């Protein structure tokens, strides 16, 4: 079982495909150090094995070292999901000493100028190269995460080379999933079907060529897939997500579903929320399903896909995810990808309050 | 820019001395009553044979040493045990779970 801990929604980057909700938690309602440490102790008792320290940018929290230390003390395997740009070598060394197990570093593109444009952050790639080097020097394992979309997709071979150069053991080639900010920017991000197919080919070739050197995780855009993804491996079956303010969600986008009540770690024990919380009960298992899911052979393979996408596109969260070819809306939905990807890309709506144009300041405001 | 360190695939043979790198953690999970392997963004669920092999992967023993030990312990033909272990460790090496000392 895994726990995604969104320590903060603060982030110096403004990537237009961010998975954070459009309404972000403000710093003054974030959980305290002691509250996060208590979450970790409860998580270990509950049988959670791995924690993913995420955000926003988790290194924007000054107490990250203490949180990592507690995770190691209670036997949780810790994974830092970072953009890297706020890190110093000293801090990373402290994190390693405190028991951090693994670093996942995001890369916006292998082309520095384009990477900076996508993240609306100057000098990002230069800094990331430096962070990647420190990670290896400190003996930590490194995964590079590369979100892929029409504005960097042609550079995939260079992104693979960059991951190798940084000494990564894993590379996540992750086509954008269209929720939250990414849904808002879908037309600016959606690759054509031909571009997508090309990435399948490139990854297959590289996976074979780099066997035993670089492990690939490949996430497909479900607009071009035949079956939906088993979102979160099934609702309430293996993953929990805690927001900066302490709300416990079955998936990071679950707040987009109306009528769901979310418990907070401030007022209820984690085990109780997991077992009995109404949001976790709502779509757990298969009882909530309608046709065609209910009688489908794949109902326990993909669990009808993503509830949030089903709701966003059909108005009813118990419908089949339109990503499924058995959905009556599938054909129409797939057309959207073909139409949008064929047109010139519109301007990005950047991830920040108000969106549209990138704001001018960079790290200073969020470095804390 | 840092000099690029050329990396090659670990090919497991009888003389390989396998080990689990520091960031790979195999432990017995009391709550679940079984062994688990924690790895970057992965949790593996090794079977009894894999656990027996991995417990002997101490960077000192060779694959041949491990095979000899387990062939005696399980009273199984050495060549079969050796081939099984090499194939299993090769798979784990390709996943980054095992390296050669």
Please outline the helices and strands:
The complex is a heterodimer of chains A (368) and B (101).
Chain A: E1 2-6, H1 33-46, E2 50-54, H2 64-73, E3 77-82, H3 89-97, E4 102-106, H4 112-119, H5 124-137, E5 142-148, H6 156-165, E6 170-175, H7 180-184, H8 186-189, H9 193-209, E7 215-219, E8 239-242, E9 248-249, H10 270-276, H11 278-282, H12 307-314, H13 330-342
Parallel strand pairs in A: 1-2, 1-8, 2-3, 3-4, 4-5, 5-6, 6-7
Antiparallel strand pairs in A: 8-9
Chain B: E1 18-19, E2 25-29, E3 34-39, E4 42-44, H1 48-55, H2 63-74, H3 78-94, E5 99-100
Antiparallel strand pairs in B: 1-5, 2-3, 3-4
Based on the model shown, name its key terms:
heterodimer, A: 368 residues, alpha/beta, nine-stranded mixed sheet, 13 helices, 12% strand, B: 101 residues, alpha+beta, three-stranded antiparallel sheet, two-stranded antiparallel ribbon
Can you offer a commentary on this structure?
The complex is a heterodimer of chains A (368) and B (101). Chain A has 368 residues and is of the alpha/beta class. Chain A is 34% helix and 12% strand. A nine-stranded mixed sheet of chain A has the order 7-6-5-4-3-2-1-8-9, with helices on one face. Chain A starts with a strand and ends in a 26-residue tail after the last helix. Chain B is an alpha+beta fold. Helix content of chain B is 37%, strand content 18%. Chain B has three helices and five strands. Chain B has a three-stranded antiparallel sheet with strand order 2-3-4, with no helix packed on it. Chain B has a two-stranded antiparallel ribbon with strand order 1-5. The longest helix of chain B has 17 residues, at 78-94. The mean pLDDT of chain B is 92. Classes of the chains: A alpha/beta (368), B alpha+beta (101). At the A-B interface, loops of A face strand 2 of B.
């Amino acid at each position: 079982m895994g726990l995604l801990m969104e320590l903060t929604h603060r982030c110096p980057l403004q990537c237009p495909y961010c998975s954070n909700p459009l309404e972000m938690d403000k710093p003054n309602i974030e959980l305290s150090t002691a509250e996060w440490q208590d979450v970790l102790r409860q998580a270990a008792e509950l049988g959670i094995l791995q924690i993913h320290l995420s955000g926003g940018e988790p290194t924007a929290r000054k107490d990250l070292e203490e949180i990592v230390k507690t995770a190691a003390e209670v036997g949780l395997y810790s994974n830092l999901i970072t953009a890297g740009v706020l890190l110093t070598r000293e801090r990373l060394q402290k994190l390693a000493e405190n028991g951090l197990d693994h670093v996942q570093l995001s890369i916006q593109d292998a082309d520095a100028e384009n990477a900076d444009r996508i993240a609306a952050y100057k000098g990002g790639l230069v800094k990331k190269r430096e962070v990647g080097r420190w990670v290896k020097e400190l003996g930590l394992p490194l995964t590079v995460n590369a979100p892929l979309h029409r504005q960097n997709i042609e550079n995939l071979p260079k992104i693979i080379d960059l991951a190798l150069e940084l000494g990564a053991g894993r590379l996540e080639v992750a086509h954008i999933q269209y929720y939250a900010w990414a849904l808002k920017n879908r037309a600016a991000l959606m690759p054509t079907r031909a571009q997508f197919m090309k990435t399948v080919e490139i990854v297959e070739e590289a996976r074979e060529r780099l066997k035993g050197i670089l492990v690939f995780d490949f996430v497909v855009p479900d607009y071009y897939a035949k079956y939906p993804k088993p979102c979160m491996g099934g609702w309430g079956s293996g993953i929990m997500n805690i927001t900066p303010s302490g709300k416990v969600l079955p998936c990071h986008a679950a707040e987009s579903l109306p009528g769901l009540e979310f418990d907070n770690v401030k007022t209820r024990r984690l085990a109780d929320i997991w077992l009995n919380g109404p949001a976790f009960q709502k779509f757990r298992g298969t009882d909530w399903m309608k046709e065609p899911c209910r009688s489908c052979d794949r109902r326990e393979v993909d669990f009808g896909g993503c509830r949030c996408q089903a709701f966003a596109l059909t108005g009813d969260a118990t419908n089949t995810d339109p990503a499924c070819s058995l959905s009556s809306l599938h054909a129409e939905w797939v057309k959207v990808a073909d139409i949008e990807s064929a047109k010139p890309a519109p301007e990005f709506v950047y991830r920040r309050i108000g969106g549209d144009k990138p704001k001018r300041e960079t790290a200073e405001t969020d470095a804390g | 820019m840092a000099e690029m360190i050329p990396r090659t695939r670990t090919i497991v043979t009888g003389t390989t001395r396998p080990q689990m790198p520091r960031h790979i953690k195999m432990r017995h999970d009391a709550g679940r009553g079984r062994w688990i392997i924690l790895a970057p963004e992965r949790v593996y669920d090794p079977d009894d044979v894999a656990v027996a092999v991995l417990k002997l992967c101490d960077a000192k023993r060779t694959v041949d040493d491990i095979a000899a030990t387990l062939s005696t312990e399980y009273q199984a033909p050495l060549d079969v045990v050796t081939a099984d272990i090499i194939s299993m460790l090769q798979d784990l090496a390709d996943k980054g779970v095992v390296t050669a000392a």
